[in-house]
Design brief:
Number of domains: 1
Distance between the termini: 40 Å
Strand content: 5-15%
Radius of gyration: 14 Å
Structural class: mainly alpha
Number of helices: 6
Shape: globular
Number of strands: 4
Length: about 140
């Protein structure tokens, strides 16, 4: 099973190739829901051992906070700020390409996976926007 840094590296690389310069969500369970929706389409190095639970604030991937922290610690994403709802993936396209190749994914496969994850984020984002508007 991949450790949290390997998962962070792979998640950041897939996001970069599929979503380019779009920010990756870090709050309101948006990425959690997207990962759950795309679980069968993501590389096993990222998904193996991920667990999901319905909590008082919705569906959560229990390992995701640690993965996101590892991404920040490894400087794969921008520094966290409690008021930010997303993070910037700091890998460039070449670093992302090299990363996915090391996990036996082609650049095209990783970009397709990242694109599907981004689309799942957009779908998951809609209910979160409704909840925020009601607050």
């Amino acid at each position: 099973m991949a450790n949290r840094y390997e998962r962070a590296e792979l998640l950041a690389a897939i996001w970069k190739l599929g979503a380019q310069d779009e920010r990756m969500p870090t709050s309101h369970g948006i990425l959690d829901r997207a990962l759950s929706d795309e679980l069968d389409n993501l590389p096993s190095a990222l998904t193996e051992g991920l667990t999901f639970s319905v909590t008082g604030v919705g569906l959560r991937c229990l390992e995701l906070p640690d993965i996101l922290l590892a991404a920040q610690e490894a400087m794969l994403t921008s520094e966290p700020n409690p008021t930010y709802l997303s993070t910037i993936v700091t890998l460039d396209n070449e670093e992302a390409r090299q990363t996915v190749l090391s996990y036996n994914l082609s650049t095209a496969e990783a970009a397709e996976i990242g694109g599907r994850l981004r689309d799942a984020v957009l779908r998951a984002h809609e209910p979160a926007e409704e909840v925020l508007a009601e607050a």
